[in-house]
Amino acid sequence: MQPVMETILHRRSIRRFAPEQIREETLAQILQAGLYAPSAGGRQGVLFAVCQDRAVNTRLGKIKRANAKPRMAKNGNYVSREQPSIADDPHLTDAFYGAPTVVTFFAPKGFLFAAEDCAMAAENLMLAADALGVGSCYIGQGWAAFADPYGQEILAQWAIPGDHYAVCQVLLGYPRPGDPHPTPKPRKSGRVLRV
Asked: How would residue 78 be classed by pLDDT, with cut points 50, 70 and 90?
């Protein structure tokens, strides 16, 4: 099997991170993968805000959790039993799960393919991270982390243009030692329609 296919089949969402920060050369490779993601019309309009300040990440993660209001998992329909999400465990207060690095993807407001461009960049980051031994997790509805005065203050500190909005985040960090790699859910049949 080709290494890229091995990475695609191996990658899982990681929500439990070791406390140490990602090595700078590793982070640079991960970000480069994101910069080479496809973008509509080759516009390359996505901005990557990379935050490694634990206090800022924790506070934004708590704001995100407070504003997310996810539908809680019921009747055994979990996001993850192995590494619970905020929809699985109401006691989790940080939607960023203590990740040492949080990348927020900002895209131009009103651009038809803003969300798609961010999602493509996020997937490239997550695949590169897995290939380099770094855990990752995609977090949607990025704007919820900035939906209070502190979040607005952070946007100003980061000099995010007013015509951009936070589409999503990708959490990055080394998986917590001793945690088994999450097992893949069985693939559902009947999803490929040959027409």
From this structure: confident
